[in-house]
From TrEMBL, chains A, B:
UniProt keyword DNA repair, yes or no: no
Membrane topology, record value: Multi-pass membrane protein
Pfam families to which the protein is assigned, alphabetical: CBS, MgtE, MgtE_N
GO cellular component, one term: plasma membrane
Family, as annotated: Belongs to the SLC41A transporter family.
Name of this chain's protein: Magnesium transporter MgtE
Regions crossing the membrane: 291-312, 318-344, 365-387, 393-418, 430-453
């Protein structure tokens, strides 16, 4: 991502510079004008990129009628911060006219009691739309759908459909298909706008509608929705409830958000972080979250130390062992984390499973073994020269081969085992692997040394 | 991502199971029928999920006319493997009728000499389209665009446009706008299909076209194109050359690929891997790539060992130091990598820069310091109890505070420094940080011990 958006970066920082300067010098009128001259997406990005104090100051200067549009572009964490200062009336007001799925996302940051109040403060029609979306889990197709669908009946001619559309002021965003339903609102097929525009208008909907795409079940997890969109290059897709009734429509822009979060999940989890983590979260919120992860790692580190302590006498005899000992563990850690990362990504892409795990395992083990030998030779040579001790060279070389082979094997096996135990491999994989490579690394190196020198 | 696509995972593994079984039992006819009953995207996913030998066997059974569609769904690495076995005629044949950007992607896997031959073997019209795309860098807007645009003139009435469209058999995929150009093909604005369908047909294009969206410059990097699409919820966007002439059109499906690769880049780079890495690449291809990363890490590890060797005499006196020494380095490594990951993601999202780095740095340093104190207390207590030595407890506690503070500070600073030096922080950040946390960890712990015990 390093090349990502140099231009956007420069632009963001220039805008922040101007805004902070104006804030500092107290020229709020100017800040207000500058800020509200930007699009909601741009304002959201500036808020995300600001430390909490400036964030609050900027938010107060945002035009009331823009608040809703900005709010829906912000990550959950920051949404919650701003919502906490609003009452139900205000929330109902700023979410007016927004897509149902976006309103539902915002409401889900609030306590149940407040959600009820906000719904009560809404118009009847809005309330119904949003209650439909809220009735599904946030991470399902139902939770990410809009309710603004345009449906047509199969017996109409295209000419009738064209005249019907002309009665609208505009079509819902990202409409590439009209949804064909029967009188019970059950899904029958899709009428692509491109078909509507290129076909003889006297033909009926039934004759041109496409029936090969299945509608999405409202209960389908959002990651599978994203998979379907990616595999089929969809722009929008209809959502049906358990009775096959069309209840809404998912559009690609919401799918892109899922793809982005999904891809961020592995990266952030491998460091024990949440993918929604606010980069500029205040110290008091960040510290406890990080502390837990450090605590887990301390147990790993103490386990490794306990292994070393078994061999205190040997180290006492040959102090060079203490000098070289971290190298074996470190190389194992790196080799293991490479395999782990490849396998975790392979699992995220649904590539790795029962029928190819065998190949993957033997491949990674072979790579680990070959690289073990290569770097064992190099490191053995260095150790022999450094400490003028051929035994030490043989010991570190052998320990390195053992640890790199173990690391590669466990790097491939651990995520699969963790998944079978319903534990997130991205979260638990790296700690588990470090424990293995440290313990095996120290044990192999110091154990061999004890055998040689005892 | 762990919850990702359980269903897809199960389906993939079931299909692989059936296919491999049929391959093993030599019933190729059955494999052929099963395989070719799937969509190109599904076949591509099965090929990606297969070890190279099964991959080649399956590929040979794929219907000739499907090869092109499957090929364009595969990552670069695997595309190249299959293309190596084809001659120019075959490549020209299977890419017939494909989008220009997809053909260009495929051709870029071939040597220049072969590209020329393939282009020569194509029809005149195809050749021109593809040469246009090939004239731009793969990672720019020009390299990811299609050339199949529908353009209209501003003076036409919508009725004329509607009749013009009806002369087409279908519209290009993901067409949500027609592009309005003057007689020199220069971009003037967009005519959304939704406007076309909801507006009185006697009105002219000029009156309803939208002119607020800027077209994309063909030289714009693909990551910035993705940013524009994400920020504006676009489905497609026109691309213009340096003279403002419309040369093509980018669609959301190609943008989603960029977003996915972009997000994968940080994850894979932090383990020294390429985001295009083939999960099942053969040993001989994987080993050298991994070896280089291990070599870089060996230098880091030896540097840390060199620091330890300075304090050999102290370790010789107090062997408990050798036992506890890895804990300080390890905790620093974990604290640092948490900060590093947050900052690298923040940079990828264009959030972090000159105007908020100060806040971020002081925040991360404070978190590091507080967590340093918390775990120093815990570890100090453990060390005092374990070795019955209060000095050792004080030494490890102090070293831990120093190392966690350093780790957090450097975790925030390093990626910014690396970027300023035009080095990819995702790739170099973790190695650079480990070097710092190891060196400082060992130096602080053993240095303090030398001071106390000497």
């Amino acid at each position: 991502m390093q090349a990502n958006s140099d231009e956007l970066h420069i632009q963001t920082q220039a805008q922040l510079g101007e805004l902070y300067e104006a804030l500092d010098s107290g020229t709020f009128k100017q800040v207000k004008r500058m800020l509200n001259g930007l699009s909601p997406v741009e304002i959201a990005h500036l808020l995300e990129s600001s430390p909490p104090p400036s964030r609050r100051a900027l938010w107060r200067l945002v035009d009331k009628e823009k608040e809703g549009d900005i709010l829906q572009e912000l990550p959950d964490d920051i949404q919650a911060q701003f919502l906490r200062r609003m009452d139900a009336q205000e929330v109902a007001h700023i979410t007016e006219g927004m897509d149902a799925d976006d309103v539902a996302d915002i409401l889900q940051q609030l306590p149940d009691r407040v959600i009820k109040e906000v719904l009560k403060a809404m118009g009847e029609q809005d309330r119904q739309r949003i209650e439909t979306v809220l009735s599904y889990d946030e991470d399902t197709a139902g939770g990410m759908m809009d309710t603004d669908t345009i449906t047509v009946r199969p017996r109409f001619t295209l000419d009738v459909v064209l005249r019907y559309l002309r009665r609208h002021d505009e079509l819902p965003a990202s409409t590439d298909n009209l949804i064909v339903v029967n009188r019970k609102d059950e899904f029958l097929g899709l009428l692509p706008l491109s078909k509507l525009l290129t076909t003889d208008p006297s033909i009926t909907v039934r004759e041109v509608m496409s029936t090969d795409a299945e509608p999405i079940d409202a209960q389908l997890p959002d990651t599978e929705v994203a998979n379907l969109f990616e595999r089929n290059d969809w722009v929008s897709a209809p959502v049906v409830d358990e009775d096959g009734k069309v209840v809404g429509r998912i559009t690609i822009d919401d799918v892109v958000d899922v793809i982005r979060e999904d891809a961020d999940h592995s990266l952030m989890s491998m460091a024990g972080l949440d993918e929604e983590e606010d980069t500029f979260a205040p110290v008091m919120r960040t510290t406890p979250r990080r502390a837990i992860w450090l605590g887990v790692n301390l147990i790993t580190a103490i386990t490794a130390s306990a292994v070393i302590s078994i061999f205190q006498d040997t180290i006492d005899k040959v102090v060079a062992l203490a000098v070289l000992m971290p190298i074996v563990a470190s190389m194992g850690g790196v080799a293991g984390s490479q395999t782990l990362t490849v396998v975790i990504r392979g699992m995220a892409l649904s590539q790795v499973g029962r029928h190819n795990l065998g190949y993957l395992l033997s491949k990674e083990a072979t790579v680990g073994l070959i690289n073990g030998f290569i770097w064992a030779l190099v490191m053995g040579g260095i150790a022999a020269y450094w400490f003028q001790d051929i035994n030490l060279a043989i010991i570190i070389a052998a320990a390195m081969v053992i640890n790199l082979l173990t690391a590669a094997t466990m790097g491939a096996l651990l995520p699969v085992l963790l998944r079978a135990m319903k534990i997130d491999p991205a979260l638990a994989g790296s700690v588990a692997l470090t424990t293995v490579t440290d313990v095996v690394g120290f044990f192999a190196f110091l154990g061999l040394a004890t055998y040689f020198y005892a």
